[in-house]
Write a structure and sequence with these properties.
The complex is a heterodimer of chains A (543) and B (224). Chain A is of the alpha/beta class and 543 residues long. Chain A is built from 17 helices and 22 strands. Helix content of chain A is 34%, strand content 18%. In chain A, helix 6 crosses helix 7. Chain B is flat and about 70 Å long. Chain B has 3 domains: 74 residues, Ubiquitin-like (UB roll) (Roll), CATH 3.10.20.740; 90 residues, no CATH class; 31 residues, no CATH class. In chain B, strand 3 and strand 4 form a beta hairpin. Chain B is an alpha+beta fold and 224 residues long. In chain B, 39% of the residues lie in helices and 11% in strands. The chains are: A alpha/beta (543), B alpha+beta (224). Chains A and B meet through helix 5, helix 6, helix 7, helix 8 and helix 14 of A and helix 1, helix 7, helix 8, helix 9 and helix 10 of B.
Chain lengths: 543, 224
């Protein structure tokens, strides 16, 4: 059979194979903070000229945002600001917008705290980045570790920009989150005596990455979804996206939902609302491919921003260092950091290492870009895509035969679909858009600046500073999902029924008029459109 | 121009580049997904697709996001399939076959025809985990079903009307909750946190200025 690789690539791969054994145990030094700063400023996409701009409207006016996010925020509401809100379809204590890990955990805890809960989600319950998270979840639960050591790792990883009270919440709640998940029946990888199997992630000083093979988020999400469905009194609306919040004099009073199948709108009045809409990967910042699910279009940022909430660190995006660079069909898909945690090395075309593999993600991504773009030592595929090798077979050499199939079965399966056996061959990788480091500003109760609005998960900002560590996102969605669920439920008992208005949208639209925003641009966009331009040009609405 | 091939989406003919996945080929043809598309990475089970190929009577399946198109492929997606989901309180269960049979009595209707295993796009031994569940081997059922993405193709083809993937998640939760050894170090740490053991240390860090944090960070000892 013909190889799927060219002669040049096969030559390079042979060099990787030839040096594999001698690279076992080879040490590369960790970079100093100054060296990190240099490589980031030189090669991280965040620092590329012309990719961010100062926002011209709203509470974070003047702050820099990546262009793709700024475009959405400087857009008019998709719904007319004189919309008829007189007929209320749902009247609930707590409305949760989003059905990923944050939304599902918020729903469970809000229900346990006596609230009448409605969970509305754009796609299916569980269609979220949570489902795709492979590597693991951090928690300082071992003898040699502590929440304060975890705290230091988080804040250093974030470039010391993180909001301290949020970092504290993340580190201190982590063990109880793992315990909660264990009690719900999540199958963590464990030793025979019940000790959690845990490894390093990039930027961790202790081995505190817990995992469920390489379906960590999937196993958590499937369990949380099963549990939400067990509780008959949590109402779930699928394919019902929120498209605007409702407010009454600086308080959140509900939302407008859009049934994406019948194209009807629905009015929800809620005492408190939890925004758990996730990230922004499908905006394809700087045209990067993404690891994110289909619905990651920053809807929550747009809705909350118009209603008066500030955003934090929206000028920085996390590029996962190891997205698939080949084959074309899986371009940009995640190759979990757990691979490097288990010892896989990054190599250039000459089979030389160029960075210690467990630096933070921003540094790893910048180093790969430097290797391919500046040094010209990347491996070029037939489509012109460049990448570096991730030497996966090394995992079995270091940890024993069978480790790959046991610890990263999803990766093994993914590549076998394209006849690449990762127990024998390295794979090509390049950074891919992965995570929204910033988001809507919250406090440690998960409260946003708009009263009665809570935010949990990737939509929130401040926890991770300017760079999130591996395994702190699965943690963050549950920590703040639970906090939001509890606080929103308790608060809902004290909230008096508010009016439903779009006054905030009127005000925001007026501000856009003043700055001369493009009239035809509206948001949220709800879903990306991957049809060909030729098709879109000929698209008409007949009925 | 890339090599083009002919595929049939729900019977309608389209010319698409031959390197695309079914999902990207459908988008190329002009479809904008609402259902039938989720994570686009093989983890969520939203895009189960059934197809036939030229001159072959066999029904084949794949995830649209993971399967490359073939010339003559005749396909349709199954974006939703009605399924029975038992409601239970995880706190009140027992990890036994009696429990499984109470919640999903239909598992005893399994004909051992193996259609579920043959159709699974994850190549999971589906029939084996169902059989293990009804023999009370919950641990094995949990392990065998672990990589299930709940796409529903097994349930769509089962002559005994079993919803295999719901049996699978039940067994995994039973295993995780009742059979897996408990992490004692975790229990201990949670208790220490509740007693406030780390509060002072963290308060101190929260009050530290950036320079002292940087110094602490740069001098951390790293676990080997």
């Amino acid at each position: 059979m013909d190889s799927i690789y060219s002669e040049t690539i096969i030559e390079s791969m042979k060099r990787v194979e030839a040096t594999r054994k001698e690279r076992v145990g080879q040490k590369l030094p960790l970079l100093t903070l100054d060296e990190r700063s240099d490589i980031l400023h030189g090669f991280h996409p965040d620092y590329k000229a012309g990719t961010i701009r100062a926002l011209r409207a709203g509470p974070s006016k003047g702050e820099n945002m990546v262009n793709e996010v700024a475009d959405l925020l400087e857009s008019y509401g998709a719904i007319d600001d004189n919309f008829d809100l007189s007929e209320v379809d749902y009247d609930v204590d707590v409305l949760i917008i989003g059905g990923g890990g944050a939304g599902a955990s918020a729903a469970l805890i809000a229900q346990e705290n006596g609230a009448n809960v409605l969970l509305a989600t754009k796609l299916r319950l569980g269609d979220a980045n949570t489902m795709m998270a492979q590597g693991g979840i951090q928690a300082a639960d071992k003898e040699n570790d502590s929440p304060s050591i975890h705290y230091l790792d988080i804040i250093g990883g974030g470039g010391f920009h993180n909001v301290p009270e949020l970092v504290r919440a993340l580190a201190i709640d982590a063990p109880s989150v793992i315990k909660w998940l264990e009690d719900l029946g999540v199958m963590f990888n464990k030793e025979k005596d019940g000790t959690m199997f845990s490894i390093h992630g990039g930027g961790t000083s202790r081995k505190r990455m817990h995992s469920c093979r390489d379906y960590s988020g999937g196993e958590m999400m499937k369990t949380l979804r099963d549990e939400v469905l067990n509780r008959g009194d949590i109402e779930v609306l699928e394919f019902s996206s929120a498209c605007e919040l409702l407010t009454d004099n600086g308080k959140c009073t509900g939302a407008i939902l859009y049934n994406m199948e019948t194209e009807e709108y629905l009015i929800v009045r809620s005492k408190t609302t939890i925004m758990a809409t996730g990230g922004a990967g499908r905006l394809h910042v700087q045209r990067f491919p993404t690891t994110n699910h289909y619905g990651a279009t920053a809807d929550g940022l747009v809705m909350a921003y118009r209603a008066g909430c500030s955003l934090l660190f929206m000028d920085t995006i996390q590029y996962h260092p190891t997205g698939a660079a080949f084959p074309e069909q899986i371009l940009g898909l995640l190759i979990t950091e757990k691979c490097r945690g288990l010892g896989a090395q990054l190599l250039n075309t000459d089979a030389n290492r160029f960075i210690y593999e467990l630096e933070t993600r921003d540094v790893e991504a910048a180093a790969i870009i430097r290797e391919c773009q500046e040094r010209g030592l990347g491996v070029e595929t037939a489509s012109g895509m460049k990448g570096v090798w991730l030497d996966l077979p090394l995992i079995d050499v270091i940890n024993g035969q069978g480790t790959i199939k046991r610890e990263i079965p999803a990766m093994y399966r993914q590549y076998m679909r394209f006849d690449i056996d990762i127990t024998k061959e390295p794979v090509l990788v390049y950074p891919t858009q992965h995570y929204q480091n910033g988001g809507i500003l919250i406090n440690d109760k998960a409260e946003a600046e708009l009263e009665n609005l809570y935010v949990a998960g990737e939509a929130s900002g401040g926890i991770h500073g300017r760079n999130r560590l591996m395994g702190n996102s699965l943690l963050d969605i549950i920590v703040f999902g639970r906090r939001a669920g509890k606080n929103a439920a308790i608060k809902s008992q004290k909230v008096k029924e508010g009016k439903l208005t779009l006054n905030h949208l009127k005000k925001y639209n007026a501000e856009l008029d003043q700055m001369g925003a493009q009239k035809e641009r509206t948001s949220p966009i709800l879903l990306p459109d991957y049809r060909r331009e030729e098709t879109k040009k000929r698209h008409i609405e007949v009925f | 121009m890339e090599d083009m091939i002919t595929i049939y989406i729900m019977g309608k003919q389209y010319e698409v580049p031959k390197s695309l996945t079914i999902m990207k080929a459908m988008e190329y043809a002009g479809y904008k997904f609402l259902r039938g598309c989720g994570c686009r990475g093989g983890f969520c089970g939203a895009c189960a697709t059934v197809y036939r190929t030229l001159d072959d009577y066999k029904i084949k399946v794949g995830l649209a996001c993971q399967t490359v198109v073939e010339d003559g492929m005749y396909l349709a997606q199954i974006p939703f399939f009605p399924a029975n989901k038992a409601k239970y309180s995880i706190d009140e269960l027992e990890p036994t076959y009696v429990q499984v049979s109470k919640l999903y009595p239909e598992v005893f209707r399994c004909l051992a025809c193996n259609t579920c295993t043959k159709i699974c796009p994850q190549d999971i031994q589906v029939m084996d985990y169902v059989q293990n569940s009804l023999r009370g081997n919950i641990t094995e059922a949990a392990n065998l079903s672990f990589d299930c993405i709940m796409c529903g193709l097994c349930a769509s083809r089962c002559p005994a009307e079993i919803v295999q993937y719901n049996v699978g998640i039940l067994c995994r939760r039973l295993y995780g909750r009742y059979l897996a050894p408990k992490a004692e170090h975790l229990k201990k740490r949670v208790a220490e946190i509740e007693e406030g053991k780390f509060d002072d240390e963290i308060d101190k860090l929260m009050k530290s200025d950036e320079d002292s944090l940087k110094e602490l960070y740069s001098n951390r000892d790293m676990e080997k």
